[in-house]
Amino acid sequence: MLGRSFYWQNKKKNTEENFSLEIGTNLTENLSNIRKMLEDPSDLVIREFTIGKANHRIAIVYIDGIVNNIYIHDHIMEDLKNASDLPVDKQELFDAVDKEVITVTGIERGHSLDDVSNAILSGNTVFYLDGVDQVLIMDTIGGESRAIEEPQSESLIRGSKEGFVENIRTNTMMIRRYIADPNLRFSTYKVGRRSKKELVVSYMDGIVNPDMVDEVKRRLETIDIDDAPESGYIEQWIEDSFLSPFPQILNTERPDKASEALLKGKVVILLDRTPFVLIAPATFGGLLQSPEDNYWRWSLGTLVRMLRYLAAFISVFLPALYIALVSYHPGLIPSDLAFSIAASRDEVPFPPVMEALIMTATMELLREAGLRLPTAIGQTIGIVGGLVIGEAAVSAGIVSPIMVIVVALNAIASFALPSYSIAITFRILQFGLMAAAAVFGLYGIILCYIMINIHIVNLMSFGVPYSTPFAPSFMNDWKDLVLRAPIAMMKRRPVYMQTNDKKLMNKGERKQ
Amino acid sequence: MKRFKYADERISERDIMIAIPSIVMGVGILSMPKQLASVTKGADGWIPLLLGGLFAVFISWAIAKFASGFQGQTFLTYASKIVTKPVAIVLSLMFAILSIFVTAYQIRKISNISQQYLFDRTPIEVIALPFLLVVVYAVSGSRAGLFRINMMFMPIILSIALIIVVFSVGWLNAGNLMPVLQTPITGYTQVIANTGAISYLGFGILWFYLSLVDKPKKAPKAAALGMCIPVGLYMMIFIMCIGVFGNAVTSNLLYPTIELAKVVEIPGGFFERFESVFFVIWIMAIFITATMAMDIGIFALNAIFKNTEKLKIIFILTPIIYFVGMFPRDVMEVDLIGSIMSWLMLILNITVLILLTVVAKIRGVKRNE
Fold first, then answer.
1. Are A122 and A180 in the same domain?
2. Which of A290, B83, B328, B361: CA 20 to 30 A from A459?
3. Do residues A410 and A341 both lie within one domain?
4. Do A220 and A334 share a domain, yes or no?
């Protein structure tokens, strides 16, 4: 940090000495200014030529690789060269180029070197005319980007196969395609001191509660960081409680999920260069929902929801329950099962806590290892892990077969959860519960469960209680919570979002 | 930060309706059938249970009715208007002290029962401490959060109680319920002297929490309805206990309700001893009782010492509660203190109700309706 700021201070001194931050009327000086500011990198392209009868000197400046070359050629270079009947006066010529000659769609004027450098560094092209202290900034953003693919972290059986990509324009385009409504709003912000990244706050005017938007914007304006490489930075900066294990903002790669959230009156935050968009606010119930619930018929949707609550229970409580039951309350287990557990634990030298800790830690290692490795080796890890843990560890007498079942079930349950961020939360909680179970058995588990509940009811996400609509309870919202009512019955937008437009979500009525 | 209307520190009348059964149902229900059965014959205990229940419903309604006349005012504020400030402070202090005793009693009770059903060798002091700390964690949070917890726990608590009632129907022996109405009048008076009022205590919270309700018009009805829940549940549990064990056995069991859970066999053969599961879940009910009692203590003290921070009061109260809870030497002493405390609580509530109503009438204190 120290070295870096020192470097920047030095740099600043140079700035003051070598080049001026204003755009002057002399083209050569202007170009040398921009060269000096960027220290003449190899990807900086400066094309100088003359136009018009009076042979005015002009220059086109851009950075190669992040612009659309064909577009520049077709819509700037060609137009400028082919232009005829250009005025002789420099200012008039400049206006004519702006208004008539260049056929680029996005065009605006810049007045300082900062405008120029920010523009070309984000892929715009800058037009200089000798003798004019203004520049034209033309939107030519392009360059290589990933094609739209199916999102890997949230693939569904039924539903759109489109996922967000790194390019924010593509992402806003995808949301627009889902919601072709004049009330869809995109407000743009720039985040980052060094690298100015585009950040878009999206919401449905007329549906969303205005207080919610104000609060999101207020928090976004407090962001003061060098750079936000991923929306996780934004999430951690604007979330309510950084101590809480629960995610207070959802993230998704799916445009259908984002647009569904918009129509429910939530706010979506998109950041350039990341396919993960943020959805605020989050509630506990929302963490266990997937867009697919609504795509299948309601009976399946409901069953899957209930299955997820079971999965959540297993992924948090199962290892703790194993510890509590085996070491404190063996009498609670049916006697036949208790005997077989006792028999299988006969050779295990560790107490149940240690056994569970060893196994869950191994499971976490496997999970992490599987993530890092390429798919082909990842499968090998799965096989090796399965064999080593499942067979060898048991026959070596390190763990009991029941423990293997417990850990396997626990892992499967946490993979069954629709969002990775809640799966992580439950993994963290699981260790706390294991500790409580080791000390106090079932009593510890229930006290821990009560504590989690106390935490949840006190947690807020952008002014919305995390426990809603369970408590404060809204019966209307229970239709889309643990159960998923038939689509035709879910007529209102979520009450807990206090939307402006409460009516008839399915008939798509819009506030004018 | 701006919050949505429903997310602020105000509560609705529905929260009041849930809060009443939340505070009423605590450790009392676990031993209630024994205390009733020991002084009545057959299943006659349901009569005092019902009459006491109706009385409790009426008192809840009356307190809520009175307190809802002073919208948005704390107990101390309107009591000061009616019976001068010093008297109001004394009354508030008495509520605070009794609430603290209730908390301590619940914590001591749960430690004793846990020791009996979940642990063998762990000392009571060690069992009580984490429970008290969780209670402290709960009261340190927002007050509206407590009502949200009630809302989340109440369905779980009610369903576990109903599961017990439903699944023990198979063991019901109608002969045990006979003979009907054979208890002499002295038996009933003994009930009242022994236990009658204890089980339904908790309406005292209405004095305080009604100041948080936005539209208290419907609150009296909500409070009365809320009180009906424990009345119905108690009668079901009592009749099931008598029906399954018979009067003689019930009066000799220490915690007949938990023993009733022992009889229950949940199909599927997954739980061998259901009573531990029942008790573990019932810990949630005891927890919210203890939490709300402690919160009332804090609420009352905070009204008197306005400039003291809530957390400071909590940190002062916590060790006091712990020592008060650990003070009695055995179960007999705990029960004795428990019944003295309940009587004091009942007397205090009724005195305050009568005192305030009468004085307000005489002095013509205006209600803001």
1. no
2. A290
3. yes
4. no
Split at pLDDT 50, 70, 90, the class of A337 is: confident
Minimal Cα–Cα distance from A278 to chain B, Å? Answer: 20
In chain B, how many domains are there?
1
Cite the DSSP H helix spans in A328-400: 335-344, 352-372, 375-387, 393-395
Distance CA B79, CA B356 (A): 7
Which residues of B touch chain A, with CB atoms under 8 Å apart? 1-7, 12, 14, 114, 118-119, 127, 130-131, 134, 137-138, 141-142, 145-153, 269-273, 276-277, 280-281, 283-284, 287
Give the one of A331, A445, A453 whose C-beta lies nearest to B272's C-beta: A331
Range of the domain at A385: 294-465
Q: B-chain residues within 8 Å CB-CB of A476?
A: none
Domain membership flag for residue B369: no
pLDDT digits 0-9 by tens, A413-441: 998 999 889 999 999 999 999 999 999 99
Residue A504: its pLDDT value, please? Answer: 56
* A308 and A450 together in one domain: yes
Q: Can you give the pLDDT at residue B352?
A: 93
Task: State whether A125 and A239 are in the same domain.
Answer: no
By C-alpha distance, the chain A residue nearest B121 is A328
Which residue pairs, CB below 8 angstroms and at least 24 apart, start in A91-95? A91/A132, A93/A52, A93/A56, A93/A129, A94/A129, A94/A132, A94/A134, A94/A136
Say whether both A312 and A457 belong to one domain.
Answer: yes
pLDDT tens sequence across A29-77 = 889 888 888 888 999 999 998 887 788 889 999 999 889 888 888 888 8
In the block, which residue shows the tokens 């196994």?
A359
In a domain, A56, yes or no: yes
- Report the distance separating Cα A352 and Cα A324, nearest Å: 9
Residue A340 domain-assigned? Answer: yes
- CATH code of B293's domain: 1.20.1740.10
DSSP H/E element including A125: strand A125-129
